[in-house]
């Protein structure tokens, strides 16, 4: 089946409404893209964030009456009669197959890979995390997750107890367990994240060693290592909660932090944590250290 793609420029206030208009007029799917390369960070529970300048794209059957649709759109008050738009024909192809072909196993260290479910593991003897890119909550493709995975692969985790604070998909806890940790406790405010973590732990054969909790249910324990890939704001606000998991001489690694935010996060954890030099990928940093 052939398709045609209609792209319109909008703002944050009207982008969702415009997407609804396109769906009501026959769009098979609607996507939202940043029009000015501005970052969006992790939203709060139930919150939907869009960019100040948003490109709204509707996917239509190629036989759709596009002139009639454009005429109707000219009547939309917040677009105006002289709005700009672009149409692009899309060739018929197996989109699912093409999407799958774009994702290959990703290596984070000599002994650590993330492998999509449709691929063979390149190194069967390595710690291979079976996780499909594109799913929610983190799959290793973002610099913050990659920084944490690379750091974990360098640690001696044999027999250790780990806390994965803000566990998301469970990728960091699963990595720690596959790298030799004995137990992982995952904590997240999102019940869907806990479901994803349980499912991924089961797929990777570590569910019996991976416990998950909401913050209201979280147990008291002194871990050997804490990893928290969330955002700078929560890391600062919850520093007392996170530090309570860091046992004597235990290690901690934190990411989800922009370079300009690093010093504020460090201050929230000093003097309890003796920080090593920070690591950086693009504009993101990983802070790591040891409890004094």
Automatic annotation (TrEMBL):
It is an enzyme of class 2 (transferase). Its main location: cytoplasm. Pfam families: PrmA. Its EC number is 2.1.1.-. Keywords: Cytoplasm, Methyltransferase, Ribonucleoprotein, Ribosomal protein, S-adenosyl-L-methionine, Transferase. It comes from the Bacteria. One of its GO terms (biological process) is methylation. It catalyses: L-lysyl-[protein] + 3 S-adenosyl-L-methionine = N(6),N(6),N(6)-trimethyl-L-lysyl-[protein] + 3 S-adenosyl-L-homocysteine + 3 H(+). One of its GO terms (cellular component) is ribosome. The keyword Transferase applies. GO terms for molecular function: protein-lysine N-methyltransferase activity. Belongs to the methyltransferase superfamily. PrmA family. Methylates ribosomal protein L11. This is Ribosomal protein L11 methyltransferase. It comes from Aliidiomarina minuta. The lineage of its organism: Bacteria, Pseudomonadati, Pseudomonadota, Gammaproteobacteria, Alteromonadales.
